[in-house]
Amino acid sequence: MAERIQLGDSQPLLIREAQVREILIMPRAIDALEAAFRDWAHGRAMNQPRQRVYTPQGTLHLMGAAWHSKGYIGYKAYFSFPTGTRFHVALASAHTGELLALIEADWLGRIRTGAASGLASKYLARDDARTVAILGAGEQAETQLQAICAVRSVQQAFVFSRTPEKRESFAQRMSEQLGIPVQPAESVEQAVADADIICTITTARDPILTGAMLKPGMHINAAGANSLARRELDTFAVGRCERIAVDDPQQARIEAAELVIPIELRKLSWERVQPLSHIVGGLLPPRQSPEEITLFKSLGIALEDVAAAAIVYEALHN
Asked: Is the entire prediction scored with pTM above 0.90?
């Protein structure tokens, strides 16, 4: 049972991490994001890109969205300091502005980031994709692999991390969890050599995935970087992608170094960058051929948080 907070005449729910973990399983999250993105394509939702407030010690990150066809509006705020990062989502009624829930959102953020990659893979990866490469073995990497397994019949996966212990631990843990062989790789090249789908989910500042490593038919989810100071793909890799989608083009212009740098070098144009919502909503076609190399540049947007929060709230509200 969720706790309630007394605020004047209203009693919004206070939803803790443990409750979010219990309710927000990956298939539910992917379905929620798909519905929200479809509505966004047709004017029934909106997203406000992330803003940041800096201090010498740390940063406040703020992002908001409305899924007004479902009756929700809300924001995510998080504080990143040397002592750690703390997340919460405030969900309100889009009709009255009444606060409905305050949700602890660490797990919610991990799930929705994975779900966005899963949703993009559903529309952009080949139907017969069976092998996945995960570059990165941190907390976010688990939900990337969970999401791909939710939308494709994955038969094997490879994981690379610069820390051998992390990649070996990840491989063992995810093999047991998902029931597929997950093998640690000793290099990025080894991890992606036979991959149909590649997920990059690292803290790298300089590119780790190069154009020379890509093969026809691959799909890439680039989910680790959301700052102009970091990128995971080099310019050649982006240039080899025939289809490029982002969760929010407006946010990409201020956060997606993988796209901004090639555009500044005149190797790419914003006209080639497509909103994922338009693909999900049927305004643009999904993958068009087995040979296409496709890219989803994931930045993590507030509409994803509001959609995931709505699932949790509806499960606990009575």
From this structure: yes
